Amino acid sequence: MTDETASGPAVEPASHYFAVQAKATVPLPTAASVEAKALLDAGGILTKLVKTVIDVVTNIVLAPVRIFNFILDAVISLLGGSASPDPGPDPAPDPTPVDPEPSPNYLTNPKLIATIPGLSDGYERDDPVVVLTDTRGYKIYTLNNAVTLAGSHWVSVSPIDAVNFTVQGAPNIAFDAAAVAMLRDSQGRETLYLTDPSRDMALIVAPESGNARELQLPPGSTPGDIVASPDGKRVYIANRGYPDFVSPSIAVIDPGSTNVSQIPLEFRPDKLFVTADSKRLVALHSNGSIAVIDTASRQVSKILQGPSVGLWDRVVMSGNGRLYFTSISELGVVDTVDTSSGSSSKITLPSGSFQISLLALSPKGDRLFTYAMDGTLSVIDTASRKVLGSDRTPGSVDWALGGAMMRGNLTVSPDGRRVYVLSPGVGQPPITGALATFDVTKNKFIGEPLPVGHLATSVAVSADSSRVYVASMTADGSHAVYVIDSGKPLLQKAIQAPASTADLYNRLRDLTDWPQGKDGVAIDAVKSKADGKMRLIVYLGGTQLDEGATRGTLRNVPLYFEGDADTSGIIEKIDRALKTLPQGTEIMLVGFSQGGMDAQAVESDWKHGAHRGSVTTVVTFASPMILPPGANEDHVIFLREDSDSVPMLTDWLNFLNVQDHNGKWRQAGQVFEFDSGIDYPLIEDPLGLKAHGDRRTYSMVATAFDKSKAPEYAVVKADLARFRGDIVNYWQY
């Protein structure tokens, strides 16, 4: 091992406002992923193999402690530890863009612009304690400490509209969470994976809809840390096992299935990382042991020893696999281990440096940021190991209640230009949290620390670096999310609205299929490229047979009989979205199968109420016709596959109806039919439901419709063109 002393400018002693935590009575674990991890020490939870009365009583008594641990550790770890694996100074692929181009400069110092309270209904209160951001900047997600008047505790998940600063829908109840990771697939959709060590289980949550499903792990697994691979193809869980009963391992989850495989380990894994190319998985034990695993073969390729001092405090990893540890026993020292070569070394800060309590890496991995117990933030070049600059947080040192300091968070903005230091709260009551901003281009703190409530627990930065979100307790004892304008202009990184009918169909399925959509309703607010006006696209999904879904078969039976269905729930959601848009906003209803029947019913019922917008267009895929043509018939289109039996259901079931809706719509020229060629063997698909639900079927029908030159479709095609542009907000239920 080599010892490298980092040289840098001398730091004058000064008081500071931010404190770090010494060991407190509630155990606090180490750092976790910046983007999506809230690590909670779940040690001591006994497995299902040893179920005694004492264990049961103990678990009941400790339930509030676990929740408190979750709050503190989420907190401590979510953004105060390792960044999501990003490339280090050596060349390495980076699947996530660092900063959009062009990247505007920061124009002002950060300022508080909004406070978003958690939901409370008088019986249950959902206090946000962890904040996660989506890649598009329109949503944030909070993990909440849910508490009832009866004293029950659990963890819930809430989606929040980051444009209008409102919680969307009731929080989804999760369970006794130990850790959380956010997986982003190739389509940019986010899924949360949580671990529950008390039940040896993982929970998979679609945060937009709140839908969740449980994934049972082997008995005695005692799952802890969790990490998602950057390529979105795997999720890894650290199964710590149970001494003398269950061996430790790493569970490997394929997001596309419920299959779980195991990678056996020689030691209990406490921390997991994945390299930026997703080819290496790194598992750490608290004593410094490191296992490097080839993710293709799922075999341990090498076992390394970490810091020479053994126990580490905080750890981060660059995208190319270099680990950086803070030492428990050495002051001003960062240990490093290259998991590729196995080599190790030390970075020693200037003489007189205090113990390092927080670490963070820049998005490119070329800068390491350390935060010491005396309030000094130092910037280290990871290639030269030299200190490029340092500064102290403004303010004064104070101790938290009980004489212990609570550790904060250190997180770097995605553009790499700002480092945010979050103090959970110091001083005598009222305990006030604060957020300080370090300008990397100037190597100094800017402005004054912003007060962010009491006992601040988590900080996250939007993908464009324009917004900072802090979860904290407010003066009345409830919790809220503080929204901070970083001073960087908000980029209009709108998602492209569907540019073709096939795109429209696939976005409909993306947003409303289970488990992404529980109610099967989603809404896009679109700024039209045709005239710059705002319009709404309302997506209504098909029948959902999954347990927990609200759009089952019984829901659509009334629609078979003259559209006699309750559309109030859908209309209420549309009206809610319209509150953010100009009077007279045009609305297009788009439905698949049952959703197409809903669209017809909503269009019929809409004119009987007072609304801020008007339904101008209806597009249905694979939908039966439940109403005859009306005054708006030219603005309605039914897209059908020639051999699909589902659109004919109303004719078969409503055989007493002498009105021929099909014939009238065909006569009006508003039915487009096409043979997709998608066909399943009769023995596999006797009712034709597989072909009906196969995305290829109606993608091909939609593409054929766009290519059609038939004049009878000209009006509805002109409508579709007006709804193309940029999505500036969206809602999903």
Task: Indicate the topology.
Elements lengths: L1 E4 L47 H26 L32 E7 L6 E10 L5 E10 L4 E9 L4 E2 L4 E2 L5 E6 L5 E7 L4 E6 L4 E6 L6 E6 L6 E5 L9 E5 L6 E5 L6 E4 L5 E5 L4 E6 L4 E7 L6 E6 L4 E6 L5 E6 L5 E5 L7 E6 L5 E6 L3 E6 L5 E6 L16 E4 L5 E9 L5 E8 L4 E8 L2 E8 L5 E7 L5 E7 L9 E2 L4 H12 L8 E8 L5 E7 L12 H4 L11 H11 L6 E8 L1 H13 L6 E9 L14 E6 L7 H5 L7 H8 L2 E4 L14 H5 L1 H13 L6 H9 L2 E8 L1
Parallel strand pairs: 1-23, 37-38, 38-39, 39-40, 40-41
Antiparallel strand pairs: 2-34, 3-4, 4-5, 5-6, 5-7, 8-9, 9-10, 10-11, 12-13, 13-14, 14-15, 16-17, 17-18, 18-19, 20-21, 21-22, 22-23, 24-25, 25-26, 26-27, 28-29, 29-30, 30-31, 32-33, 33-34, 35-42, 36-37, 36-42
Helix pairs in contact: 2-9
Organism: Mycolicibacterium parafortuitum
Protein name: 40-residue YVTN family beta-propeller repeat-containing protein [Thermobispora bispora DSM]
InterPro entries: AB_hydrolase_fold, Haem_d1_sf, Host-pathogen_enzymatic-act, WD40/YVTN_repeat-like_dom_sf
